[in-house]
């Protein structure tokens, strides 16, 4: 990569790169985002604290916090590319390839691989797995009810449906499901000191990647000889313009799917339960006509949760954004949680409003080539799970959840779901 000379600039006084910032409550962070949106929607910040790989030559990044600018960056893939990484820090190319698949690619390669895998995410394919999603949701809520008071909702409910759905979609054998779930969690928890428990984050990530790649290689080999109606069979058989996916490409996509599909839906489910508890009138409104109102409500679920906090691009051309001149080679980080609470787009953004329409949130991306390929699967899971929760456990209550404090510390670097 060609060295980039970045002009010396002062870092913004609101430090979005510090661990202390991400350890505060969402309301506190929103006050900081609001100040930036109002006065300096594109601001310059120091390199992120506790980076996975320290880079003494990293000058920092531009923080993009306004909805309109996030959409602009998302759709201008001719200017802002993903192939140089999607996290705050710079990651070696071989690590990007192995863990982030076409999430960290640009056209034409991104176009080719996305086209090869997209057949598994058509509305027809989603409808095919909906009955299994509903059955899994019923089982999970029954198990949660049987567990009784004091059950860990995140562990026993919101974390269960994504991995079961993934397993059914891809065809993960029962013998590998626990190891896949554990490796997926490890891949997004490397910045959480509680989860790390003294382990080296690089070693932990490497071990998780090897586990997921090993499962993918084994499954691909088996499905070539014994095809079935699942995503892995589609991947090994897929062909576009005479080209098929290599085992390495299949494994990389399996890592992305395992991590992204698991973490984001879990976060959305957890935050939504808390919101339905904090705003009982919204829960009652939804329950009054669940089937007729859940479609609109789902969009507010994901806006409110904003399960993917950030996503980075890198400028490959000079560009003016939000009154700032972005130079070639500079990193641009989109803050989705800020964009989703932009008062220029959302009336009373701090209100959890399940009837909100239109709801142009950026939780699935701001449009463009990397818009979330799995968004319909995520919505199918949320629809099924909350249909069961609200009908089976109508008096849901929740105290201050422990998961908020822990996950928000490391969610800033969680793997985005945008494919």
TrEMBL record:
PANTHER family (alphabetical): BIOTIN BIOSYNTHESIS CYTOCHROME P450, P450, PUTATIVE (EUROFUNG)-RELATED
One Pfam family per UniProt: p450
Organism in which the protein naturally occurs: Amycolatopsis rhabdoformis
Family of the protein in this entry: Belongs to the cytochrome P450 family.
Organism domain of life: Bacteria
The protein's name: Cytochrome P450
InterPro entries: Cyt_P450 (IPR001128), Cyt_P450_B (IPR002397), Cyt_P450_sf (IPR036396)
